[in-house]
Amino acid sequence: MIAETVIEVQPRLKLGSNEARRNRRAGAIPVNVYGRKKPSFNGLVDRKAFMAFVRTGISRATVFNIKLPEEGLVPVIIREVQTHPVRGTIEHLDFLRVAMDEPVKTPVPIRLQGEPLGVRQGAVLQRGVRTLTIKCLTSQLPKELVVDITDLKIGGRVYAQDVPLPEGAQLLSPPTQLVASLVGTRASAEAAAAAAGEAPKKGKK
After folding, report:
1. Rounded distance between C-alpha atoms, residue 131 and residue 173, angstroms
2. Within 13 A of 141's CA, how many CA atoms are on the CB side?
């Protein structure tokens, strides 16, 4: 699936850090477009237009079109984002050219969905990795991987191999990478003991 938004890329005629700073002050973000055995293209995108696109909820796995002066509409994904260390603003972007009918390897963010059963019993949810790298057809690349954790109990864990993938997708991240776990607390131990009809042992968490 490809996003409806089209980001126009203007050529960047002068390179170098000083010129990049001037471009940023003028409201542009320097970008580099590469991939598919074509020459890389140094360009600029309008910061306001790109940030409006970001606010629609895109991810590093979102496929969208850019408009290049000589190539026209080109589907891409965001390969790299450089941000300012203090302000957190985007300083530079790398776009990777992709083909909708060819496979692509890319990290995809994970979204945990639902309140785990164990949390309602006092346990604490701990997050593991936030993204998984997969390989699949660009046309089937999901914006995010959704994991339903509603039934997760105290002591339960979700690993990379448990995360549902699109049909035909291949997991490239280690399958035993931890995605989420539920850690028991004193409150959850007391709740479990009460449910079992016995008092918790003193000092046991």
Report:
1. 9
2. 34
- For β-strands 90-97 and 131-137, DSSP reports them as unpaired
Residue 92 bridge partners (DSSP): 82
Residue 87 CB neighbour total at 10 angstroms: 8
The sign of the torsion formed by the CA atoms of 99, 79, 15, 10 equals positive
Closest CA to 1 of 67, 53, 62: 62
Cα gap 127→173, rounded to integer Å: 16
Is 154:193 a contact under the CB 8 Å cutoff?
no
pLDDT of residue 205: 44
Point out the residues of the chain with pLDDT beneath 50: 204-205
Taking the C-alpha atoms of residue 167 and residue 63, their distance in angstroms, rounded to an integer, is: 18
* pTM score of the predicted model: 0.81
* 161-164 contact pairs (CB < 8 A, 24+): 163/110, 163/132
Type of residue found at 90: I
Element (H, E) at 46: strand 38-46
Strands 145-148 and 103-113: parallel
Helix residue ranges per DSSP H, 26-90: 47-54
How far apart are the C-alpha atoms of 90 and 81, rounded to whole Å? 7
Residue 148 has which token pair?
A: 């339903």
